[in-house]
Amino acid sequence: MLSNIVLNRENLINNYQILKNKSDGKICVMVKANAYGHGAKEIVKILDNYADFFGVSNQSEAEEIRGLTNASVVVFGSCEDYQKCIEKDISFILLSFRHAKEMINLSKKLSKKPKMHLCINTGMNRYGVRDKNEFVRIIQLLSKHDIVLEGVYTHFSSLTTDKDYTKKQKNLFYDFVSLIPKSWKTVKHVGGGGTIFSDIEADMYRVGLEIYGYGNSLVSPVLTVESEIVDVQKVLAGEHIGYLCGFTAEKDMIVGTIPLGYGDGLPRKLSNKLQVVVKGKKTLSTGNICMDAFMIDITDIKCKIGDKVTILSCASQIAPILETTEYEVLTNLSKFRGNRIVR
């Protein structure tokens, strides 16, 4: 392949150790959405001897990760086949009293107890139990059938933007958690935008963006996108470059073609704005980004076909251009059609 996502092993492990030391608890590494575009297989392989849990969004992702590690794998979304999850030793979230009854019946059928994490809705209003009476009924029901929760958790929606709302969520979480039998040794865990760096105490922290090098100055980006020039074109003044006359040359130019496009996760909104590095020099994309390629201005750079180009080394540089977050920049790369390599 001419294009690569390059993962910095040292940065990833250092990020993990920084988060681990800061948390003084267990770490659940979120590898959903192909590990935020980095490559789930590659990330799990590197962190297999470090992470306490791996977190995913759906059953398909969980089954893939289950085949890569013996560590605990938790699905933080709905599953289509809970029986298969139980049989494959995949943990999953518990959402309601009705859901608990269904899982107890399934447990009886399989003669095997499910590993479940009860979700408490403290204000995210996405998943989980928000009524304390329902929460108590679930605990009592599980106790009656000798089933212990593997985990109980919540998610903070506005950790970095609304301290009062976060405090309300935190206190409500602690209130619910106090109702769990201490003999269960259930893992109490939290997630959402840097909970490790807050005053929120928990047994485990779910880390996503921070493990990949964003959200805190202590961590370093893991991912770099690289490619190469595959063609060189001379463009005369007044001529257009790319689809829909997206760029018009004001003078004679030389442009290089890079074999990556919006089909690989580079949004068209970056057209004429994406800054890349070739031969140690910065230059901009020219013309509208195509599905499979884009062009760069190399008029003042002495380069040739085959020369390497750094497309992306920090998602924080691109996010403002797209008026979005690093999350979206990185997860767009789940569509990347080149290699993922570890250095």
Would you write up a description of this structure?
By secondary structure, the protein is α/β, with parallel strands linked by helices. It has two domains: 9-212, Alanine racemase (TIM Barrel, Alpha-Beta Barrel), CATH 3.20.20; 223-342, Lyase, Ornithine Decarboxylase, Chain A, domain 1. It has helices at 9-23, 32-36, 40-47, 59-66, 82-87, 97-110, 132-144, 163-177, 315-322, 326-331; strands spanning 4-7, 26-30, 53-56, 72-75, 91-94, 116-119, 151-155, 187-191, 204-207, 223-228, 231-235, 240-241, 247-248, 253-258, 275-278, 281-286, 294-297, 308-312, 339-342. A nine-stranded mixed β-sheet has the order 11-14-17-16-15-18-10-1-19, with no helix packed on it. It starts with a strand and ends with a strand. The model has no long low-confidence stretch (mean pLDDT 96).
Q: What are the main properties of this structure?
A:
eight-stranded parallel barrel, 343 residues, TIM Barrel, Lyase, Ornithine Decarboxylase, Chain A, domain 1, single chain, alpha/beta, nine-stranded mixed beta sheet
In short:
This protein has two domains: 204 residues, Alanine racemase (TIM Barrel, Alpha-Beta Barrel), CATH 3.20.20; 120 residues, Lyase, Ornithine Decarboxylase, Chain A, domain 1 (Beta Barrel), CATH 2.40.37.10.
